[in-house]
Write a structure and sequence with these properties.
Chain lengths: ~325, ~300
């Protein structure tokens, strides 16, 4: 029991630390680096746009008042944290009528949908492939066929994205080259919308899947090689159990558990890569939002997206960590 | 299973299978490592010689006729803003490698120091270092880096290197710490400790030399990770826009929709170069695993 308490305690401390890092980073970095970020961003906006006549001085004064740049740092920090807890991430610098949280809210379903589907496909395909590659009875041809996939895993997702756009949207006009849906589609809960969204999601999802399959296959292969070397496999074999049963029940089942912990650890890397894929595809998710706000130097949106990304991922990893001991009893006894 | 017997044979009879001399006879010298290191040498040569063979002015905006496909005069064509893309590539590869190397060195040095502190002394320092490492590893690196990079007004190649170095030390710390823990308990360290060798002697004369393969492997990993992060930031438009790097070339080609315009000669060279660099690093680190982890020789 104490082990379990320790395990959960450690994960809670880890979660709190990540939350602290995310919030402090967003708070401290703009203040540590010399120069006034609000003034700089507004100047940039004025220089580049100029189409909308805005009173930058008034906006700057407004933000300075809101963030209380004249107040001591400690007060600013407390203000920032209370705003954050109420879910107030400020408004878009470029378009002050839109709150940052609303922009993020409309982007999240796109990202979650794309990432969830792509990660599950990559994980399942990669795990099966890895298990087969470690299995001595697998035909050699599979190993040869899998080699290109393993090599693709060394290429960043977003480069695969560029290649896929070129191949499947330019050379062969099979899929749209970007965006989350056609400009002509009126989004609604109907069949046409679903088809359009899936059509637009295939290439971004494919770049994440192709980039990640090799990673999961390599991980599963080495886990499987370890498991197949265990005595109980030899025993099961000499008992005359069918190879199929040994492969699934004795091999895959035991190698799968560490593979699931790897999922929790790899989530951060996958999300980092997916953000850039969204940027390349101009996808309406968090990555696309981050990209457009970086281009327009909309620092409040950038900060908001980063905060939401770090916090939501920290909670996801925390949940996986809590569920994991339930499926793998071995974990309960480690610190 | 057959691979297992293959390599046992190679270990048992190296002379008959590989009739080579000296170092080359080492069975750990796998094709992976040879190809990986060979590719790295070729890339390094291009990075060193490339800038000497081109006129850097040709990489400036409006230096030449824009939108030309590859020809004898412009080997890789020109972009929408009139840069010669061969020149751009010759300047971009060394800059990207420079970012990776600086960040890799910084990250590995920090990682080794923290790992030695954590692994050798244990206790509270170990718990704190491990907690920070584990926590930061669950954070999508690009998110932290975007915040830092977006707030830097004058981005240069060196600043970019230090920015990505901020997250390049966790993996080295983790892997090297684990090794310090096992090496610390080896009998030769016990003997040295019993014969009165101090902490510093133990760390630098007994532990460090045996860590070298792991440090080298972590370094390769850190360089790859740092380059990946820097190219990602640059592709988002957070790089040193006035210089040439592979990520910035991707950024410009995206900004001017090179893919949609069919200007493959613009986006393909940086994509190919990045892929080759990562492939070389992957093969090298996979090959080096055999030096670092003798057990892999049997199971891989």
């Amino acid at each position: 029991m104490t082990d379990a308490v320790r395990y959960v305690g450690r994960r809670v401390v880890q979660l709190l630390l990540v939350i602290w890092v995310a919030t402090t980073l967003n708070f401290m970095v703009p203040r540590l680096i010399p120069g006034d970020p609000v003034a700089a961003a507004l100047a940039q906006m004025q220089a580049s746009g100029g189409s909308v006549s805005v009173d930058t001085a008034a906006i700057a004064a407004d933000y300075n008042a809101k963030f209380g740049f004249d107040q001591p740092l400690w007060n600013q920090y407390v203000n920032y944290l209370t705003d954050l807890m109420r879910g107030d991430l400020g408004v878009s610098l470029l378009n002050p009528s839109q709150t940052v949280i609303a922009k993020i809210g409309s982007a999240i379903p796109w990202s979650v949908g794309l990432l969830l589907v792509a990660t599950i496909i990559a994980f399942v395909v990669g795990t099966i492939l890895g298990a087969l590659l470690a299995w001595p009875r697998t035909p050699r041809i599979l190993g040869a066929a899998a080699a290109p996939l393993l090599l693709l895993s060394t290429v960043p997702y977003y480069l695969l994205a560029i290649i896929l756009i070129y191949l499947f949207a330019i050379v062969f006009k099979l899929f749209p080259p970007g965006n989350g849906f056609s400009p002509t589609t009126i989004l609604g809960p109907n069949w046409a919308t679903a088809v359009d969204i899936v059509n637009h999601a295939i290439l971004p999802a494919l770049s994440i899947v192709l980039g990640a399959v090799g990673f999961w296959a390599l991980g599963m292969r080495s886990l499987m090689v370890g498991v197949l070397g265990e005595d109980y496999i030899t025993y099961a074999d000499s008992k005359g159990l069918s190879p199929r049963r040994i492969f699934l029940r004795y091999g895959v089942r035991n190698a799968l558990l560490p593979q699931i912990t790897a999922l929790a650890l790899a989530l951060a890397t996958v999300v980092s890569g997916a953000i850039l894929v969204e940027a390349i595809f101009n996808y309406p998710g968090l990555g696309g939002l981050l990209f457009s706000s970086v281009l327009s130097k909309d620092i409040f949106v950038i900060n908001g997206v980063v905060t939401v990304l770090i916090l939501s991922l920290a909670f996801a990893v925390f949940l996986i960590d809590l569920i994991y001991p339930l499926i793998d009893p071995r974990i309960r006894h480690q610190g | 299973m057959t691979a297992q017997t293959d390599s046992t044979v190679a270990v048992a009879r190296p002379a008959s299978r590989r009739a080579r001399t000296g170092l080359l006879r080492d069975p750990r010298l796998t094709p992976q490592l040879v190809v990986g290191v060979g590719m790295l040498i070729a890339i390094a040569l291009f990075a060193i010689l490339g800038p000497l063979l081109v006129d850097p002015k040709m990489a400036n905006v409006t230096a030449t006729t824009p939108r030309l496909p590859p020809s004898a005069e412009h080997w890789l064509g020109t972009d929408t803003q009139g840069r010669d893309l061969w020149t751009v590539m010759a300047l971009a590869v060394p800059n990207t490698l420079k970012i990776g190397l600086i960040a890799g060195i910084v990250g590995t040095v920090i990682g080794v120091v923290l790992a030695l502190i954590a692994g050798f002394f244990g206790g509270l320092p170990d718990s704190i270092i491990r907690l920070i490492c584990d926590s930061l590893l669950t954070v999508p690196g690009i998110a932290i880096l975007v915040i830092i990079a977006a707030n830097i007004e004058q981005m240069t190649v060196e600043v970019m290197a230090l920015t990505v170095a901020a997250l390049a030390w966790m993996f080295p710390t983790r892997t090297i710490r684990a090794q310090v823990l096992t090496i610390r308990e080896r009998s030769y360290v016990e003997v040295a400790r019993a014969s009165g060798v101090g902490s510093r002697g133990l760390i630098f004369r007994e532990i460090m030399p045996n860590l070298m393969p792991f440090i080298a492997a972590s370094f390769v990993g850190a360089v790859a990770g740092a380059m990946l992060a820097s190219i990602g930031l640059e592709a988002l438009g957070l790089g040193a826009i006035q210089t040439q790097t592979l990520g910035i070339t991707i950024y410009w080609s995206q900004e001017y929709t090179a893919v949609l315009r069919g200007m493959w000669w613009w986006w393909a060279p940086p994509v190919v170069a990045i892929s080759l660099i990562f492939l070389a690093l992957f093969l090298t680190s996979a090959g080096m695993d055999r030096f670092a982890n003798p057990r892999l020789r049997r199971s891989a």
